[in-house]
Design a protein that fits this description.
about 220 residues, elongated
Length: about 220
């Protein structure tokens, strides 16, 4: 009888342990699924907003390009960034540290890709095409200053509408989470962080901001 009771207790103990682990696995899987769904929702929402903002930006650009109406793309870019800010912040708060870190690293890569494409386009504004005649070359250099100014204006408005709002909120979210954990922020130089203010001055302002976001993201998932 005692031996039978012993085996029954052993069996019940094994069954109970398996049940607890099974429920834990299910709970963890649900948590991962919810985090991924939140991340996917954030990306889908941002994509939709970027398309909508791009359409609005094109419409307003056409209006502002009419004669005697000066274009103020700086104010327009700031308004678009602010309109996205609260939505992005609310969605990012629902994401786990691990998923937020992965999203920030991917976002930093896209920021660098944008700057690389911008630099390539910038070269076309600086250097004349091959095989230009003397008259065409003269016209190129004559108009280069105005073309460069227009190019930087377009690049800045595009960065602000597509990247600025999310970049600022990713930075704020990760900095706050690190502070809540009692972890120090990664070292950074303030003069290299101007892209977070919507300015693109300097040799690589977007990449500098992207590097800081990635440093925050990697520190966020490091053990204390």
């Amino acid at each position: 009888m005692y031996r039978g009771a012993f085996f029954i207790l052993v069996f019940l103990g094994i069954a109970f342990t398996w049940l607890v682990e099974w429920r834990s696995d299910i709970s963890h899987a649900v948590e991962i699924k919810e985090s991924r769904e939140a991340l996917g929702k954030l990306q889908s929402t941002l994509t939709a907003n970027q398309i909508e903002n791009a359409s609005a930006l094109g419409y307003l650009k056409g209006k502002l390009d009419q004669p005697r109406q000066p274009a103020d793309f700086s104010a327009l870019g700031d308004a678009i960034a602010r309109s996205n800010a609260q939505l992005i912040a609310n969605e990012q708060k629902r994401i786990s540290d691990k998923d937020l870190s992965a999203h920030a690293i991917d976002f930093a890569k896209r920021m660098r890709a944008f700057e690389t494409a911008m630099k390539s386009a910038e070269d076309a504004q600086i250097y004349p095409p091959a095989n230009l005649s003397s008259a065409q070359l003269q016209d190129f250099y004559k108009n280069r200053g105005a073309a460069m100014a227009a190019f930087y204006e377009r690049a800045t408005e595009q960065f602000r509408s597509q990247f600025l709002g999310e970049a600022v909120n990713l930075r704020n979210q990760m900095e706050q989470r690190l502070k809540d954990k009692g972890q120090p922020l990664p070292p950074h130089e303030a003069y290299k962080m101007i892209a977070f203010d919507g300015a693109l001055a300097g040799p690589s302002p977007i990449s500098d901001a992207a590097d800081y976001l990635e440093a925050l993201a990697r520190r966020l998932t490091q053990p204390k």
